[in-house]
Design a protein that fits this description.
This protein is mainly α. Helices cover 76% and strands 0% of the residues. Helix 1 runs antiparallel to helix 2 and helix 1 runs antiparallel to helix 4.
Length: 156
């Protein structure tokens, strides 16, 4: 049965919020990774990659807000500590000292990780009948799969 946030049980809200918080953490870390690469990319493809990384971090900044606000709508706490996001995230930091190709490869992997995390969030939401969170997670997962494809296309 489809349920709104107010109709979900407390345990369902907690499970969904935990999955969403993981998605927020992955998104936040990937946002900073994209901004780092945007600032530090060099080489023949500079302009294209500089713009692509900017497109990614701008998209992700809005997405993390949407995901965190869904946590709040479900009665949860929106985690805002960078240390906690880094702790939770499967996407790691990068010092920005890499070739353009390494940056593109790392960002493609980060996008794939985000897509998988959001698929997991969608599954948890579906299990509890929360179609609104499921829809948000699916839509975001599709965005990350597209970014991964665009990045892999740069690699040949």
């Amino acid at each position: 049965m489809t349920q709104t946030a107010a109709q979900l049980t407390t345990s369902a809200q907690e499970a969904i919020c935990d999955a969403l918080t993981q998605s927020v953490a992955e998104t936040a870390v990937t946002t900073m990774l994209a901004q780092n690469f945007h600032w530090n990319v060099k080489g023949m493809a500079f302009a294209a990659l500089h713009d692509m990384f900017q497109t990614i971090y701008e998209d992700h900044f809005t997405a993390q807000d949407d995901l965190a606000e869904r946590v709040k709508a479900l009665g949860g706490h929106a985690e805002g500590r960078l240390s906690e996001m880094l702790n939770r995230s499967k996407v790691g930091e990068h010092d920005g000292h890499a070739t353009a190709e390494e940056m593109v490869s790392n960002m493609a992997k980060a996008q794939e990780t985000l897509a998988a995390t959001l698929a997991g969030t969608a599954a948890v939401a579906e299990e509890h009948g929360d179609m609104l969170t499921q829809d948000l997670a699916i839509a975001r997962g599709q965005v990350h799969e597209k970014f991964a494809w665009l990045l892999r296309a740069h690699l040949g």
